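pinned: reference chain
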Amino acid sequence: MPMQNEGSSAKVITEERESKPVGLARAFKRPTATTGLVGWLTTVDHKKIGIMYGVAALFFLIVGGIEALLIRMQLAVPNSELISAQLYNELFTMHGTTMIFLAVMPLGAAFFNYIIPLQIGARDVAFPRLNAFSLWTFLAGGIFINTGWILNMLPAIDKAVPKIGWFGYANLTSAEFSGIGTDFWVFGLQILGIASIVAALNFIVTIINMRAPGMTMMRVPLFSWMVLVTSFLIILAFPAITIALACLMMDRLFGTGFYEPVFGGQPILWQHLFWIFGHPEVYILILPAMGIVSEALPTFSRKPLFGYAIIVFSGVIIGVLGFAVWAHHMFTTGLSTIAKTAFALATMAIAVPTGVKIFNWIGTIWGGQIRFTTPMIFALGFIWMFMIGGFSGIMHAAAPADGQQHDTYFVVAHFHYVLIGGSLFALFTGMYYWIPKVSGKMFSEKLGKWVFWTMFAGFNITFFPQHFLGLGGMPRRTYQYDADMGLNTWNMVSTIGAFILGIGILLFFYHLVMMLRKGAPSGNDPWDGRTLEWSISSPPPEYNFAAVPMVTSRDEYWARKMIPEKKKLIENEKPEKSIHMPSPSWFPMIVSIGILIGAYGMAFLKSGYSFVGLGTLFWPIVGLLIITAGIYGWAFEGPGGYHLHPEEEEGSGGYRKKEPSDKSK
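pinned: its structure tokens
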């Protein structure tokens, strides 16, 4: 419970708690700064963590985009010698890994962190320090998995970049056929899995237990609902890939034979374990995107979401069925006819709840007072391109058709329409929708539309011709093709489109910088929003809500603005005199650093290389000791915390801390 204010000052007051730090925790004095570099490194504020997730994800988006452009440059003309076969394999491995695990997923996590507590009327997530730990562990995994690019430049180390595809099929990953880069891939994904599972547990507890009074589950905003379903998918799907990676680690480091036929292992076991994770992973990427679109469309159509309950239940059904369709990735591996039939039917069935969502979105738009803002047209672009990806996905559900399309560029076109035309365009919807709330600055609509149309044109010019390339027989994962195969024209068109798409993304970054530097103030509610995040100032105060809101409607903020009786709720919600906030902490970052150091030691354990002593047990032990010390300090750090004393700021739509005026001084 918040403590009573001991004075009228609006300054932050640090409270000494009876519970004192002990042992190692005393060595790291609790920082109280909320600004500057120390403030960012030690923060447990969900908003700062969300911003750092977003910045890191956008950086990796650039990295993955550069890798994609190099791939398309190699394929622009037949028999190209621009890059070697080995570098090509490294590029498409790291491109897929980077875009899925380091760009799209963490960009979604940025919205999870920043928006979820604001939407449900909470002051933070359930476990703030665990939230910081997930951020630093994600960054550790991103750094680790990309280390190979630097190590490849060292004369003593070769094959430090994985070249096994983002799917890592056995036996490509065996020690016989791959170098230390595969170890970086294995341990990097395990580190990223830790970050994902920790974050998912945190958001499940936050959404279920920390909703504002009166916010029943059927009043929870759609984005928060889809994040809840996604979090359960992460908890249930990631153990499969964790087991698969652990078995691969044992094969590579200790000579076991889980995937080695000579030792009685089965390479196809990897495929089953990987795709039991891999297909729910598709919905881990797409369900939050659907949630973002479900927030934008009603706002810019000036209508409540059509069929709210049906969209919620269809999202849950998609999550459940996502675990029943993994073998449609394996129709060409020799499955029995019965198995193919069962998975084909399940794959067709999962299209039904997806189609339900699309019809509900159309029903939301139908008859609305539509405003074609930048986030709105990105949302409409998402629907269109996700439908194209869905149509080709239904084709893959038929095993005979899949037999013709499997491992061709038709499949490449399909999943890019789902994950780039789908997930990424929805994430751009979210960025344009919520960045005014995050920054307090408004962007140029004219420039925003230029970003959309450049990306939209570039994307379709890049990937739609790849349907024709696939049907024409162009295989995936090949770095050259002959001039007489009839693939020259569409490959050149696809490469031109990739550069147009790249220009569109660069234009977005320019737009973002210009908005942050010169954007006009956005105000608290630039879109006439429906949900609670628009009821407070932009950017939000550290404590989010000076008074915890009482929720009585599904579109709570619309109701407060439009229904006279509910306007009184704002008047009755007086700011609390003292709001307790959790203290910043060094220990989440320290534990993540220990994980990073230990992973480096394990990756070099059996490599035969001696790199500043990494070829011994020394560094794994050092990493383990740092992890143990960090957990010990974390556990005995004590609750700590400080109190904020907000004062009402009239006309702001919320409350913010005021600094004393000159007279009060």
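why pinned: The two ends are 30 Å apart (CA to CA). The beta strands are 13-14, 441-442, 520-521, 579-581, 642-644, 647-648, 655-656.
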